[in-house]
Structures are given as C-alpha cells and as structure tokens.
Design goal:
heterotrimer, A mainly alpha (244), B mainly alpha (554), C alpha+beta (356), B: 554 residues, mainly alpha, globular, C: 12 strands, 34% helix
Chain lengths: 244, 554, 356
C-alpha cells in the first residue's frame, strides 16, 4: 500500500489512513492539553482581576495598545500564510510550502522581536515585577505609620512611588501575569518556528504530496492555536483601559 | 481444542524483543514500547527504593516522641523528599509507564504505540525530571512538603525548591506524552474485531487515566511554572505582601493533584480486574459497569479538589458542594469492589501470588475507600484534616492500592515481560509480609490522627508514642516484604524456569504471543472474534499452571 | 491532660460529641462493609478453590442488574446520610454566634500570639472560660498556619493577608493541646501550645491578675486618628459608624457584608472595593501597618457598630460575656471622632454609603 513511499508510513501503522487519523487525533489531544495549560494562567488572571480591577486597569494603561495591535495583525497574517502552506502541501507543491513557511517564520520572528522591544520598554519604565524590591518603588514605601500622620494627603491619595505605581501594589501582579503569559506564548512561537524549519527540510526533499501532507496540517493546527491564545491575551492585557 | 486465530510463535529459538540486540544503543535509542517499559521499570524501581529509604528514616525518627534521631530541618526534608519521589517519580509513572507501556499495544493487537518516538522522549523527560529531583536532594534537599504550598515555598523556604519544582514539572510532560500516546493508540490501533466492549478492563482504566493525564497535568504544570518564576525571576503572583492569594496556588495544585490520585489508583484497578478474571477464570462480573465506573471516576475526579481545602478559608457553601461531589466518587469505587468480589463467586479460584495481591488490594482498597468517606464528611474532615488520619488514608490507597496492584501486575506479567518464572513460595511469603506489615504500619495511624496528631511533626506529645511504635514496627516488616521481590525477581532472570506463552491460562491478546514477545509483538495481525474474558470459549492453549509446579490450596 | 491510652480525644467542646457521633457511625458502617468484603473473599477463595486436575472453566456469569442497582443505591444512601450529617455540623462550626467573646490571633513562625479584647496578651496559651463561646479572628504574619485543638474538634487555616474565623464553646475544664496543623517550616512541630479552660470565676481571677495592654479597640481609635483616617472618613469617604455588620453597596452593583475580612481588604487593598458614590482616593496600607495594628483598627471600627449616626461614643460595646474592664478612651481624641461622625453621615449620597 505504501510501496511507493516506503519512508512516509511509520512501522507501527497499517496504512496511511490510520497514520493520518492517529497524528491528527494526537495533535488535537495535545492542543487540549495546551488549553488546560494556558487555562490555568487565565484562571489566575481572572481571579486577580476580580480582586483588583483598578490595579489591572492601571497596569493595562501603561501598555501600548498600538504595539499589541500591530503584533496581532502580524500574527493573524502568519496564520493565513500557514493556511496557504497547508493548501500548497495538499496540492503537492513543495516549493509553495517552503515559500509560505519562510514568510511565516519571518512574521513570527517579527512578532517576537516586537515583543522583545516591548519588554525592554516596560523594564526601562520600571514596571517589571522584580523591580518592586528597589527602595521607594511603591508610593509611601516604608514610612512608619506615625510619619504618615498628616494623613494620606500628606503624600496625597494619588501619591506615586518612583515608578508611578501609586496605591496599586497589585499592579505588580498584573505585570507578573503579563510577563509570565506573554513569555510562555513567545516560547510556543519559537517552538513553532523550529517545527516550520523541520517542515521546510522535508519540503526540500519533496516529501509532501496529496497523499501525505499531514505534518504540515498538524503543525498548522498548532500555529492556529498559538494565534488564538494571543487573541485572548491581547484584549486582557492591552485593552482594559487603553490610552487612545 | 480450538486455537486462537494467531499462530503462536514457535517455542524453539525465537527471536524476541530482549535477545534481538544487546548493545547500549539498542536500549537507549529504542522505540520499542516493551524496551521502554523495561527502562521505566528499572527507573521507577530505583526511585521507589530511594523513597523507601526516606520513609525508613521517618519511621525511625517517629519511634520516640522527642526529635532525637535527626534535626527538625532534616526531618522536614525527609518527608518532603519521600513525598516528592514517591508521587512524582514512582506512583504516577508506576503502572502506566511500565505495565501500561508494555501491555497497551499487546492488548490492542498493535505493533507498537501510535508515537514510539514520543514514547522514548517521555522516558528521557522522566529521567531529566528525575535528575533535577536528585540534584535538588544532593544539593541539600527541599523542605516544603510535596504540596509546595505558597507562600512558604515561594517566599520563605531557603532549600532547593526551584530544582525540585523543575523536576516535577519536567516529569509532568513525560506523563502527558504517555497519556497522549495511550489515547491515540486506543482510538486508532485496535485490532480488527476488537470493539470497545471487547477491551480488557485494564485498557478502560488506562484510557480513563490518560484522560486525566492530558487534562490535569498541564494545570499543575502552569502552577509550578508560575511558582518557579516567582522564585527565580521574582515575579509576584502568590506573594501576599503585594496582595497575592496563597490559596490560589492550592486550588491550582489540587485541581491536578486530586485527579492525580486517580492517575495512581485507576491503573491499579485495571490491573486488579485482569488478575481477578484470570485467577477465577471468569469474565468480570458486570463488565460494562466496571468499565464505565472508570470513566465516571475520571470525570468526577475533576470536580472534587476542594475537599482538600475544607479548612483553607473556602466558603462553607463551597465546602458543601465539594463534599457532595466527593461522596459521589464513592459510588463507582464501590461498584468496582463489589463486582470484583462477585467475580470470585462460582469461579475457579487459584491460590497464586498475583491473586494474593488482588485479594489484599480489594481488602485494603475497601478500607482506604471507606476512610475516604470520613474525609468527605465535612465535620469529621475539619477534625482529621492534616493529621495522621489523612496519612493513613492515602497510604491505604497509594500503598495498599497502587503498590499492591503494581506488585501483583509485575508478578502476573513477569513471565510475559522476561520469559522467566519466579519462585512461587517466596513470592507468597513476601506478599503476606507486605500485607501484615502494611496493616501494622498504617492502621494505628487512623487512631493517631483521630487523637489529633498532626502530620509532618518531627516531635510529638508522649501520649502518642504507643501507636507510633506499633507503626514503626510494622514498617520494618513492610520494608522486608517490599525488598524481597527485588531479589527473587532478579534471581529468576538467571535461574528461573522458562515461561510458556500463557502460564496462567489467561485469555488476553498479550498471552497469544510468545513470552517474551517478538519486537513487533505478533507474527500475524490478530483478529478478535471473542468477547472480553471469554474463558468458556476454549480451554487455555497452554496450561502452565499444573498441580506440580505450583501450590494449590489443599 | 489525659495520659492514658485511648483511641479518641477528650470531648471538650459542644462540637465534640456531634463529630464523634458521626465518626462512630462512619466507623461502624465501614467496619460492616470491610468485614462483608473480607468474609466474602475468604469464603469464595476456599469454597471455589481451583482443584488439581480441574480442566473445564467455570460457567460464565455475566452480571446481575439487580445486584448492581443494589450496590450502587445502598452506598449512595449511606453517602447521603454522611453528607447531610457532616454538613449540618460543619455549618455550626462555620457560623460563630453573635455573643461570642473575641480573641485576636496572629500566627507567625513559630508561635501563636493571642490578644483578648481587654488587651491581655498571651503567647502559645489561650485561657478561656467554661461555657462561653469564643471566636478567634486569626491571621498570619508570614506563612500559612492552622489553628487546631483536637479536644474541641476544630481546625482552621490561618492565612497571611486575610482573616479567618474559628469558634468553639468549651464544655469541660482542663488543658488541651493546641497544634499548628499546616506545615509552616522548620519548627512546625514546635508551634504548639495549650488551651486552658477555666471555671468562669477562676477565669475572672486569672484575668484580673494579668496586666492588660491597651485594649485593641482603644489602640485602634488612636491609630485611626494618627494615621489620618479622620481626614476623609465621614466626608470624602464613608463614615465608620455602624459600618460593621452592614451590607455595603459597592461600585459595579455588587454588595458586600462588612465583616472583618471586608474591613481588612478595604484597608489593605483600598481600591479593591469602592463604596458606591465615592472615589478611590484612599492609599493602600499594605506593608505599612502590622497585623496587630490592623487588628486594632478593625476592633475599633467594630466597636462603633451599635451606634447610630451622631451617636458615636466610645468603643465600649464589648460582646456579652466579655469580662474586660470598661474601656477608657483618651478624652482628647473624642472630639475629633464625634463631629465627623455626626456631621458627615448625611453627606453620604442617597444611593450609597454604608449607612442606608
């Protein structure tokens, strides 16, 4: 049955149909795992946003929604190019697969690069969670209650620490989730880039045909999932209280 | 006598998965599920011995009320590492990754798992996690308790928390890959004619276990990752000083760790179903109910985590809901116990080591399960939470349940895995030692707990000493019973009798191939035309159990 | 303490016999089913043992729907009995009575710090009078602890950054173990103490022999002034009079019960719950006041509960059964409290305010 493609059918499978079914089911099951993985983080986010809506809105206002929107567009386009790569693989056009995957990798790297710029910006502005240990980070840090005697107006109810965090200590929690979730997301993108490079290698050996395009298809599924995660992350972190 | 639809492999000079190649590469780069199972078997046994050594130290320390053998710090590290090693590196992979890995393709009539390379990767991940865990111990150990509760683990502990968490995190991925593999294999690679309701009950329980593995494990993965980030990168997620909620971590932790209890016990239940059927030579009483009860347990297990937190400041109404749902889990478990027992009715019951373990399992699991009801009952749980009552309860499930089933399964499938028979009389002796030692160790702890002795106590008020001494004494018998199999099973590899293909006269597909099986399991694709456990279908092909090579009851 | 060998602890609170009753019932049911299974297995193993030369497999039995229903329904019925019994007692444990005497508890590595309403402080020991409900308002200064008195059958985790409440009514004079039940670090097993239950007269004698610190409510009133709370509360911020125990209308349509946890959150995370009609202008006091100072502030706010607008007097409304001496309030501070409380309450917006 697979005599013409002795290497594309793995030894444990009876035929290509069984193999395709298994690989596809395996990827869906893996994506379910990923949903639960990110789900845990979204749950934590939800709990704290419910506790500290003000602090989260304030943290969100410190982010640039424009940069986030730019990255959203980049990622959506990359999903399109992956879909086109799958389409080319279905038609057995290995050259087309390579072309679209190279574009996808470029978009992915652009996304990660912009993310790095954004991280740098936030750290320079002093909002990174680990910076909370510097002296005077929070408004009115460490004054003894008696020194506070003039009342909150002494330092003012809108008093801000060195980093403008005001009364919102929980803003640190917002940025903790921001860094944790976006970096895990970026790591998923880098893993995706690695998978694309593997697919390009296969495509250069003309491995994909109308009979065998499953790897491109399931990696495409993975990439769309990574995209969807970002579709949740973007509004939750950038659009609570954006500065239009 | 009819035969199976498979020609058994010729018994003379067979090439099997073990003698196919002997070099190191052929083991460390193998994608054969059977070899990976053996590598897992060796690894988890090593971890079991390490965890057992910690347990020995704990019981020695608790023989006297004053903390006089080790320092409090050392004691805290001992029980933490005992828990971490036993749970993450022994109990969770024990049955799925050894027996499951070995048997799932055989029972399905497949050549291998759907993703053999992922399977090998799973073993490497497990070992990488294990290396992290061991590194943490070598560098001074960890003292947070295996539960890693924040804020102690995130802000206060000064021990090797990061490495330990990393170990558990990485080992979690090994577990996810195993579950993924089993689910896909069960769906797509069953032999022709092998419908879902012809599957052995072991397969049903492995399937239910796999569902929990892929749904629950990622949740603790993210929890541990956030905790790790808090310790290493100073993120602030659980830090109370900026408003972090320490109880959030408990929710995330138990959302995994309660289902994880079923990752440990469901495979054990599957093993017991196989043993009971084989050694009474009957189909399991109420097969469909036993099968569905596995799925029911897996599903309900996701909704009961709050019963670990009745005194953690959860609302009283939340406690009530979790209590109610926890009681529901008791029903499918009870169904299983009654059905196993009923299977022996009018059976042909053999007095052999694996069956001994099955009996002991049913008895001890019954006690473990029933004492679980005490913990689901809100007012009683308030009193016994975090006391030795809990310790006793979960050891009845984890040791009396999982470890006994694991040992029973290892004995039962040992001839299939290695092609050798172990020595029956010493195996029976060890099984009795485990049963007696276990009960003596853990039964007194129920009373200790009800009297109020909290767990994780290095020193305790003197009135608790009598029961503690009983427990420590029992532990020495238990240790003997658990150490013996290591020796006589190894001994059998060199001096044991060669095993026939089907020494117990069982009917599963795994017994229809040679012992040990060839690399791709079956000479020909098996076709299944019979129901599960259809002992009446035929005489067993090879009746290895004859009156003169085994003890039969008088 | 009872030194004899026993299998359940002394019953020294009103919960004990309830919990023990359920425990003994559970034990009996468990013993019955365990024996049933053991006997069945042993009996089957002997009766149906495989005999030498036995060739034919036994006659197959598929199952029995009747039996399956029986052994699903019977355990279910038992489970529901356990559930309702356990939940009923649990709700009693979860709901402190209004007349309970209050003790503030702070857990820290590795000791229990307790303070009575009259200011008397104790460490690792709690003296309580017989037959008087006692409510512990607990929080932790560092990690999670758990306050556990086996003889009372009560246990409650003590958390950093949050209040939890535990109550009991002692029924037997004696000294009982107090344990920390949640692992809290190196000296976890050393974080133990005792609860001393005394006859009321003996308790009073003991109490009069102590040298109380400033009562928490009084210290709280002083703090309330020195922290500058008066500057806003009553004008730009809600008044404190009658706040405790009332339902507060919050921004966003939520309501909250103003209990200890709510007050704590409002002080420590001041922007979390904004009372409807007010602005989030209050700074957070997280990290600026200690657990004890926070407890004092809350004790002060609670002492204002039974007074109407303008009727704010001294924080002297102590719970019934409380043996504390009458509280003295620094007279210099009274004028600062009263005008603000009486004058400002009407300024609260009609829709909101804690004092509808």
């Amino acid at each position: 049955m697979s005599a013409s493609h002795p290497t594309i059918l793995a030894h444990q499978f009876d035929d290509l149909h069984q193999q395709k079914e298994s690989v596809t089911l395996g990827m869906w099951a893996f994506l379910v795992t990923e949903v639960m993985f990110f789900g845990g983080a979204f749950l934590g986010y939800a709990v704290y946003r419910f506790y500290y809506p003000e602090a989260f809105a304030y943290g969100s206002s410190l982010e640039s929604w424009r940069i986030g929107a730019f990255n959203t567009v980049v990622l959506l386009i990359s999903s399109l190019t992956v879909a086109l790569a799958v389409h080319e693989a279905q038609g057995g056009n290995n050259g087309g697969v390579i072309r679209y995957l190279v574009i996808t990798i470029a978009l992915a790297l652009l996304f990660v690069g912009v993310k790095g710029y954004e991280y740098n910006h936030i750290i320079e502005a002093g909002h990174a969670p680990w910076q909370r240990f510097t002296e005077g980070y929070y408004a009115g840090d460490n004054p003894s209650p008696s020194a506070h005697g003039a009342g909150p107006h002494g330092t003012g109810p809108h008093a801000q620490g060195a980093n403008g965090q005001g009364a919102h200590k929980a803003t640190t929690i917002f940025f903790s989730f921001y860094f944790a979730m976006t970096s895990i997301h970026a790591l998923h993108m880098l893993i995706g880039v690695g998978l694309f490079i593997w697919l390009i290698k296969l495509a250069r050996r003309n491995r994909f045909s109308p009979k065998y395009y499953n790897p491109v298809e399931v990696v495409g599924l993975y990439w769309h999932f990574v995209d969807i995660v970002w579709i949740f992350i973007y509004p939750l972190f950038y659009l609570i209280d954006p500065k239009w | 006598m009819t035969t199976l639809d498979i020609t058994p492999a010729p018994l003379e000079e067979p090439e099997d998965y073990l003698n196919k190649a002997y070099n190191i590469r052929s083991w460390f780069l193998t994608v054969d599920h059977k070899r990976i199972a053996i590598m897992y078997l060796i690894s988890v046994t090593a971890f079991f011995l390490v965890g057992g050594a910690f347990a020995t130290m704990i019981r020695l320390e608790l023989a006297t009320p004053r903390g006089d053998l080790v320092q409090a710090e050392t004691y805290n590290k001992l029980f933490t590492m005992h828990g971490v090693v036993m749970i993450f590196f022994f109990l969770i992979p024990s049955i799925p990754a050894t027996l499951g890995n070995f048997l799932v393709p055989l029972m399905l009539g497949a050549r291998d798992l759907a993703f053999p390379k992922l399977n090998l990767l799973s073993w490497y991940l497990f070992m990488a996690g294990g290396v992290c865990g061991v590194a943490a111990m070598v560098m001074g150990g960890v003292d947070t308790g295996w539960t890693f509760y924040t804020p102690y683990s995130s802000e206060f502990a000064t021990t090797q928390v990061a490495f330990t968490i990393m170990g558990a995190f990485i080992a979690g991925f090994a577990s996810i890959l195993t579950g993924l593999n089993f689910i896909v294999t069960t769906h797509t690679m069953r032999a022709p004619g092998l419908t879902w309701f012809r599957l052995p009950l072991f397969m049903w329980s492995m399937y239910a276990t796999s569902i929990i593995m892929i749904l629950a494990t990622p949740v603790i993965a993210i929890g541990l990752l956030l905790l790790l980030a808090e310790r290493v990168f100073r993120l602030g997620i659980f830090d109370p000083s900026i408003g972090g909620d320490p109880v959030l971590f408990q929710h995330i932790f138990w959302f995994y760790s309660h289902p994880a209890v079923y990752i440990m016990i469901l495979p054990a239940m599957g093993v017991i179903s196989e043993l009971v059927a084989c050694f009474s030579r009957k189909r399991i009483f109420g097969y469909p109910l036993v099968a569905f009860s596995s799925i029911a347990i897996a599903v309900i297990s996701f909704f009961v985590w709050g019963h670990h937190m009745f005194v953690s400041s959860q609302s009283a109404y939340g406690g009530m809901v979790f209590s109610f749902l926890s009681f529901l889990v008791a029903i499918p478990s009870a169904i299983k116990v009654f059905n196993w027992t009923a299977t022996y009715f009018r059976g042909s019951v053999a007095f052999l080591t694996p069956n001994l373990y099955a009996w002991f399992f049913i008895g001890l699991f019954t006690i473990g399960g029933l004492t679980g009801l005490f913990l689901a009952a809100l007012a009683v749980d308030v009193h016994v939470h975090d006391t030795y009552f809990i310790v006793a309860h979960f050891h009845y499930i984890m040791v009396g349940g999982t470890v006994l089933a694991y040992l029973g399964g290892i004995h039962y499938w040992w001839p299939k895995m290695t092609g050798k028979m172990y020595t029956e009389w010493i195996a029976k002796f060890a099984a009795f030692a485990v049963f007696v030692g276990f009960n003596l160790t853990f039964f007194p702890q129920f009373f200790l707990g009800y009297l109020g002795m909290p767990r994780r106590y290095h020193a305790y008020p003197p009135e608790y000493q009598v029961l503690n001494v009983m427990s420590s004494a029992g532990a020495s018998i238990l240790a003997l019973g658990l150490a013996l199999p290591v020796f006589y099973l190894l001994w059998s590899l060199w001096y044991g009798k060669d095993a026939p293909a089907n020494p117990w006269g069982a009917v599963g597909l795994e017994w229809a191939t040679s012992s040990p099986p060839p690399t791709e399991n079956f000479e020909e694709q098996p076709v299944v035309t019979w129901e599960a456990y259809e002992y009446s279908r035929k005489e067993p092909d090879v009746v290895g159990v004859t009156p003169n090579d085994t003890s039969t009851p008088v | 303490m009872d030194e004899g060998f026993r299998l359940h602890p002394e019953q020294a609170s009103t919960f004990a016999s309830d919990v023990d009753g359920l425990y003994f019932f559970l034990s009996a049911v468990s013993a019955f089913f365990t024996v049933l299974i053991f006997v069945a297995i042993v009996y089957f193993a002997i009766k149906y043992r495989r005999r030498p030369g036995e060739e034919a497999p036994p006659r197959p039995i598929l199952g029995s729907l009747g039996l399956e229903v029986l052994w699903s329904v019977v355990p279910f019925i038992f489970a529901m009995i356990f559930f309702f019994w356990g939940a009923r007692t649990y709700f009693k444990i979860a709901r402190p009575p209004a007349n309970a005497m209050e003790v503030y508890v702070v857990g820290k590595q590795w000791m229990w710090k307790l303070q009575h309403a009259n200011g008397t402080r104790e460490i690792n020991t709690l003296h309580v009078p017989l037959g008087q409900p006692v409510k512990l308002i607990m929080s932790s200064q560092d990690v999670i602890h758990s306050f556990f008195v086996p003889a009372f059958r009560v246990k409650q985790d003590v958390l950093p950054g949050r209040y939890t409440v535990l109550w009991f009514e002692p029924t037997k004079v004696g000294e009982y173990h107090l344990f920390c039940a949640e692992y809290c670090g190196t000296q976890h097993s050393g974080m133990i103490g005792r609860v001393v239950v005394m006859e009321p007269q003996a308790y009073e004698a003991w109490m009069s022999g102590t040298v109380p610190d400033e009562p928490p409510a009084v210290a709280g009133q002083r703090l309330f002034t020195s922290l500058g709370c008066l500057t806003c509360h009553g004008s730009q911020a809600p008044t404190m009079a009658g706040l405790y125990g009332s339902q507060v209308q919050l921004e966003g349509g939520r309501t909250a019960l103003a209990d200890e946890q709510y007050l704590r959150r409002s002080i420590m995370d001041s922007t979390a719950d904004i009372v409807q009609g007010y602005k989030p202008i209050m700074p957070s006091f997280r990290g600026q006041i200690s657990e004890e100072q926070l407890a004092s502030l809350i004790a002060y706010i609670k002492s204002l509960q039974e007074q109407g607008q303008g009727g704010m007097r001294t924080p002297a409304t102590m719970p019934a059964g409380q043996r504390a001496q009458p509280l003295e309030v620094d007279p210099t501070q009274r004028p600062r409290v009263t005008p603000e409380a009486s004058g400002i309450a009407p300024a609260a917006p009609p829709t909101g305010g804690p004092n509808p």
